[in-house]
Write a structure and sequence with these properties.
The structure holds 2 protein chains of 2 kinds. By secondary structure, chain A is an alpha/beta fold. Helix content of chain A is 35%, strand content 27%. Classes of the chains: A alpha/beta, B alpha+beta. The structure holds adenosine-5'-triphosphate (ATP) and magnesium ion. The site of adenosine-5'-triphosphate has 12 residues of chain A, from strand 2 and helix 1.
Chain lengths: 234, 406
């Protein structure tokens, strides 16, 4: 059996902010094996983002624990979680992924810069990554000069250029048209196959689910189905 | 892990450019504040320099040695003697010059008028190094040695006495035996004290001449001028150690009014600077907080991607330091430039009557002190750092998830 990239046990997340506590996630057990490409589906409010954020170390569970690459997140402090996100996890958010004052290439270099990779190496790797994603010619543009789809590609480039153990994408296609969505998903498929990057993506979009190799369904904070895809979309 | 410094500077720098108008206005405010502080500071330093110069020049020196009781009753029996080859027990490299004098109250009489003055027996050569006699314009000639038997008097006194260069005057004073002595002197020169009041007070002759008249070998004072005011305390201590039975006094004690004005000018500089900086501080805090708030989403994203909290703090601080730093450099440049425009001095002639009262010359030359510039620079940067504290706190409180959900 492949080693576990993420391992969640008894995850519960209750939001206490409002008068009525919201049970966003209830006692969820969930594993991700290396190399998987998993889609997380479910109605709005079913807890997809909550699960993604807990796995990504952006939020802490009310009870239960998450292990990433063998490290229990409950043992880490804020700075430790920062470092975990920096070094082990790639994020692609729904929107506003990029730093507006940095060019596409500089955005891709950003994580490496935080990691302390040398300027020359950083640049080489960023340029190579942008080239391999077919957006090498946009390298010197700032986010404001890129389309939504182009911005998401840059975000993917940034997320995977450091070879994270896990790529988390929360509705990466929400602001994209169907053609651009297909392009983005092909890209994710490619990096999943070629680079062996484990991907977990939350989505409403059946097209996105079509690309994933395993489908997980949430409803009211619980996993209601978890199955391997029979066939993969072309 | 150390801070990704280049990255933070790059981000801060570009973010500053993103809001040219807002940051430009802040920059202008810093520039004006620093520029005017530097300028006002130089003017006040010029004024202080004049005051100090006058205080020290008025035969005080930085440090003076006197017999006890001389100040209350300045007569020849409050005197002391020193060996002919006496030298001040001080590091010679700190001493600009020193001299011994005999200084007694006297009455000066011309054919028409009589006035009370201070008759000072000096060593003319030594005197030029340390008192205003070296600086003033003299009509006629100067005294030629400690044994010179002529007198040098002020222009204004000559007018009051209705006498002229080359004429004789008579001086009456009390000898060491308590009896009056009277002698005639020829006027060798008239000095121009630029209306500083000394003209009517001091009459100079050779020290040995006056000692002979008073029938003594004693002196009434030793005056030492140092290369800078700050060595005064040290020199005072060293002199006091070797003259245990005499009074050793600095110019501040000898001329307390001037010392008070001096301290007041120091305080004025400080208060002015502090007011400027507090006003600036609020502007800076306001700008930085705005910058943090409008970047909440972005800062949240940076945190989500793995930027550590303290790097976010550093980013705000760096932004503050950058803008303050640029404003500071420009402000210093403008201040120095303004001062350089006035290196001829500010002519206060029009208000001459008023300003003389405050011990000022009619031309005030601003003086830039490097130490002051350094102090302004350091204080400004410290204010900048303090002002960035609250905005940085706001920035570090940003929770990535909440920020990005907006
Ligand atoms: N910060 C929060 N404070 C209070 N309640 C929250 C918070 N975040 C999420 N919730 C609630 O938790 C539940 C799960 O939210 P979550 O964002 O995980 O759903 P989702 O499946 O991602 O929905 P969507 O498809 O709309 O993105 C919802 O009822 C939501 O209102
Ligand atoms: Mg969601």
């Amino acid at each position: 059996m492949a080693e576990l990239v993420a391992n969640c046990r008894g995850l519960t997340r209750i939001y206490q902010d409002d008068a009525v506590p919201v049970q966003a996630l209830v006692d969820v057990d969930f594993d991700l094996a290396a190399g998987e490409f998993v889609s997380l589906a479910g109605p709005s409010g079913s807890g997809k983002s909550t699960l993604l954020n807990l796995i990504g170390g952006l939020d802490r569970p009310t009870s239960g624990d998450v292990c990433i690459d063998g490290v229990a997140l409950s043992t880490l402090n804020e700075a430790g979680l920062s470092d975990l996100r920096l070094n082990k996890i790639g994020f692609v958010f729904q929107a506003y992924n990029l730093i507006p004052v940095l060019s596409a290439r500089e955005n891709v270099e950003f994580i490496m810069q935080l990691q302390g990779v040398s300027a020359r190496k950083r640049r080489e790797r960023a340029v190579a990554m942008l080239d391999s994603l077919g957006i090498g010619d946009l390298a010197e543009r700032r986010p404001g000069e890129l389309s939504g789809g182009q911005q998401q590609r840059v975000a993917v480039a940034r997320a995977i250029v450091t070879h994270p153990v896990l790529l988390l994408a929360d509705e990466p296609s929400a602001n994209l048209d169907s053609k651009t969505t297909a392009e983005l998903l092909e890209l994710l498929t490619r990096i999943n196959r070629e680079h062996g990057v484990t991907i977990l993506t939350a989505t409403h979009d059946p097209v996105v689910m079509g690309y994933a190799l395993r489908h997980v369904q949430l409803r009211d904070g619980r996993i209601v189905s978890d199955e391997k895809a029979d066939s993969v979309a072309a | 892990m150390t801070l990704p410094f280049t990255l933070l500077v790059q981000l801060s720098w570009r973010n500053l450019w993103r809001h040219r108008r807002r940051n430009g206005m802040l920059l202008a405010a810093i520039l004006v504040a620093v520029g005017t502080v530097v300028f006002a500071n130089a003017v006040i330093r010029g004024y202080q320099g004049d005051m100090l110069n006058d205080a020290v020049n008025n035969l005080a020196g930085h440090v003076k040695v006197l017999a006890p009781g001389y100040r209350a009753d300045p007569s020849i029996d409050k005197s002391f003697t020193i060996a002919p080859d006496w030298q001040p027990p001080l590091d010679p490299s700190l001493v600009l010059g020193w001299t011994s004098r005999v200084r007694v109250p006297a009455v000066i009489m011309s054919e028409r008028e009589t006035r009370g003055v201070q008759l000072v027996g000096v060593d003319p050569e030594r005197e030029t190094l340390i008192s205003f006699l070296g600086e003033v314009d003299i009509i006629g000639g100067y005294l030629e040695g400690p044994a010179d038997r002529r007198v040098l008097i002020g222009k204004a006194l000559a007018e009051q006495l209705d006498t002229r260069l080359g004429r004789r005057i008579v001086m009456i004073t009390q000898g060491s035996d308590g009896l009056n002595r009277e002698a005639g002197f020829r006027i060798v020169g008239l000095y121009d004290g630029e209306g500083t009041g000394v003209e009517k007070v001091f009459v100079f002759t050779g020290r040995e001449t006056l000692q002979a008249l008073l029938d003594t070998t004693a002196i009434t004072e030793i005056s030492v001028r140092l290369i800078a005011d700050e060595y005064g305390a040290l020199a005072g201590r060293q002199l006091a150690a070797s003259f245990s039975d005499l009074e050793v006094m600095g110019w501040r004690e000898l001329q307390p009014q001037i010392a008070a004005m001096f301290a007041f000018a120091d305080a004025a500089i400080f208060i002015w600077f502090t007011i400027m900086m507090i006003a600036l501080g609020f502007g800076l805090i306001n700008t930085l907080v705005t910058a943090v708030l409008e970047r909440t989403r972005e800062l949240g994203m940076l945190r989500a991607l793995g930027m550590r909290p303290r790097a976010v703090v550093a980013q705000v601080v760096i932004e503050s330091v950058l803008i303050i730093g640029v404003g500071l450099v420009l402000g210093l440049a403008v201040g120095v430039w303004l001062v350089s425009l006035l290196d001829e001095g500010i002519d206060l002639g029009r208000w001459a009557a008023g300003v003389e009262m405050f011990g000022m010359r009619t031309v005030l030359v601003p003086r830039l002190l490097v130490a002051d510039l350094v102090l302004v620079a350091i204080m400004t940067m410290i204010f900048g750092l303090i002002a960035s504290f609250y905005p940085a706190l706001r920035a570090v409180r940003i929770k990535p998830l909440e920020a990005m959900r907006r």
